Amino acid sequence: MDALLDPTLAANDPDRRVVSRPTGLNIVWSSPHTLGRDASKQQRQPMNEPTIDGSPATWLSAIGDHGVTKVYPPRTIIISEGDPGDTLYVIKEGHGKIFSSNGAGKEIVFATYGPGDTLGEPSLDGGVRSASVMTLERTTCLIVKADFVLQLITAQPKLALPIIHNLIRLVRSSSENVKSLALEDVYGRVVRLLMKAAEPVGTGWVVHERLTQQNIADRVGSSREMVSRIFKDLERGGYLSVEDKQIVIHRKPPPGW
Question: Whole-structure pTM over 0.70, yes or no?
Answer without folding.
Answer: no
